[in-house]
Amino acid sequence: MSGVGKKVADVAFKASKTIDWDGMAKMIVSDEARKEFSSLRRAFDEVNSALQTKFSQEPEPIDWEYYRKGLGSRIVDSYKEYYDSVEIPKFVDKTTPEYQPKFDALLVELKEAEQKSLKESERLEKEITDVQELKKKLSTMTADEYFEKRPDLKKKFDDEIRNDYWGY
């Protein structure tokens, strides 16, 4: 296997093992996003499979003796000499070092956005719980009980009354 092909296949294989597809699928809420996600996963699997099959196999060695019998040793030896003299240049990855810092910065930004999203989600869940609790108690709640939970509104109403502002 060529060095570059093996490296590409190894990276793709490792990437497929480190991606938590099931964990990501659980976070998706809309049907359209699920379709896009399954399309992405299918495309990734197809590319990964192609890389594994294409680059994981060694090329079959040439049976020079077979060709010597049919074509003659002089021409086959000439081809073998040319074949052996071919040098395949090594791949030098110039792209990864250029984009790796950008990718790392995006990962950091992603983690920050994830933390912010989780905090906001917790806050909203607490607010939903409070509103549901308030909805249950609203029919039997007194104004004083309500203003205990919402001191900002009590202050606003007291200020309006004190300033003789009745909203018209």
From TrEMBL:
Similarity field: Belongs to the ATPase d subunit family.
Location, primary (coarse class): mitochondrion
Gene Ontology cellular-component annotations: mitochondrial inner membrane; proton-transporting ATP synthase complex
Gene Ontology terms for molecular function: proton transmembrane transporter activity
Highest taxon of the lineage: Eukaryota
Keywords: CF(0), Coiled coil, Hydrogen ion transport, Ion transport, Membrane, Mitochondrion, Mitochondrion inner membrane, Transport
Keyword hit for Coiled coil: yes
A single BP term in Gene Ontology: proton motive force-driven ATP synthesis
Signal sequence, start to end: none
Record protein name field: ATP synthase subunit d, mitochondrial
Function: Mitochondrial membrane ATP synthase (F(1)F(0) ATP synthase or Complex V) produces ATP from ADP in the presence of a proton gradient across the membrane which is generated by electron transport complexes of the respiratory chain. F-type ATPases consist of two structural domains, F(1) - containing the extramembraneous catalytic core, and F(0) - containing the membrane proton channel, linked together by a central stalk and a peripheral stalk. During catalysis, ATP synthesis in the catalytic domain of F(1) is coupled via a rotary mechanism of the central stalk subunits to proton translocation.
Pfam families linked to this entry: Mt_ATP-synt_D (PF05873)
Coiled-coil spans in chain: 107-144
Cell compartments where the protein resides: Mitochondrion inner membrane
Lineage, opening ranks: Eukaryota, Viridiplantae, Streptophyta, Embryophyta, Tracheophyta
